[in-house]
Amino acid sequence: MADEDERQLLINCAARLEELITDPIDSRLLHWDLHYFNTLSTLDDAQRWKAIDPKPLIGDSAFELLPALWNRWDDLVRTGDVTRALLRRFDLMTDVLGLDRSRAAGWTLGRVLQVAVWDLVRFNEGHICPEHRAIAEVLLNARI
Hints:
Elements: H1 4-20, E1 28-30, E2 39-41, E3 49-51, E4 57-59, H2 65-70, H3 73-78, H4 82-97, H5 101-123, H6 130-142
Antiparallel strand pairs: 1-4, 2-3
Helix pairs in contact: 1-5, 1-6, 5-6
């Protein structure tokens, strides 16, 4: 990774993840790709939703947030205040799911690190996805 700022961002993500890995993991079956395009409303009752296209994984529930944070990114940009809109989305999800905000932020930063390494190895990408970089910067700067 050529960009020193991005390298430092990933080091900061790793540091937050390191704080969590000694804690007991909230081991649950995770979807691992849960976002707007992988949810469907049932025809018989609009209040019921179905998750589709899972990538099953056992892990901490807070590991699930990244896809829902970056999906429909244009909606966040259109607000004119990405930081505020992103934190609102993050807060809504942690509240509804009953997740500790600090733990959710740490696992989300860990997920940014995981995706960045995946992109580097698999696609030889020399940079972090811009949306993921923005998410990491917002969560780190918010000191959650």
